[in-house]
């Protein structure tokens, strides 16, 4: 379980997140929505241990973010909003490179299967020759190499075609339900969020998102 309690974040005097509390159970997919600048990426960065909150506490499976950062990192898969892969390497080389950094090894066949699970059937092609959507698929596959318990996905499907998005969505739902993963997911595509997520967190002052989600039948938390 992930427990976030009274989390706040300010950049100098600018308060971005204020008193956010929620928990995520194994098997749940949580959507994060809000206008540009609302603080979605900031929250995911903090949960990915890349930034520190100004206040508040976070526990992942009863481990404190403050005291057990190294061990928590092993349980986290993170897809940043900006694509982070090696352009000069092939898909295969990228997967092998990131597997070397990962604490859990998979072997080549499983790495290739992970790409296929993300609807990416390129393997020997240099990344620089791939389309934007294909690069996102590779970023997603990389985040899954070490079989993380908590997956933090920051707009992972921007530019990915609808068919692949549906396939990836189905794969993530299977990961959550059959393998008890916890997934936090941001997207500006409300249909995707409603389709994919069990609960939705709205961040920011603008009631717009809450209003359009109200008829979705999903549980909504607002901060
Ligand atoms: N390193 C930083 N230093 C100062 N301010 C920052 C920093 N990172 C983010 N911010 C500010 O914090 C606010 C939240 O940014 P964040 O990137 O979390 O928003 P977001 O909800 O992810 O937006 P988007 O939908 O555009 O991705 C913005 O006002 C942004 O300018
Ligand atoms: Mg963002």
From TrEMBL:
Pfam name, any one: ABC_tran
Keyword Nucleotide-binding: yes
Chain ranges of the ABC transporter domain: 2-223
Xref: SUPFAM superfamilies: P-loop containing nucleoside triphosphate hydrolases (SSF52540)
4Fe-4S is among the record's keywords: no
CDD domains given in the database record: ABC_DR_subfamily_A
Family: Belongs to the ABC transporter superfamily.
UniProt protein name: ABC transporter ATP-binding protein
Organism per entry: Oceanobacillus chungangensis
Lineage start: Bacteria, Bacillati, Bacillota, Bacilli, Bacillales
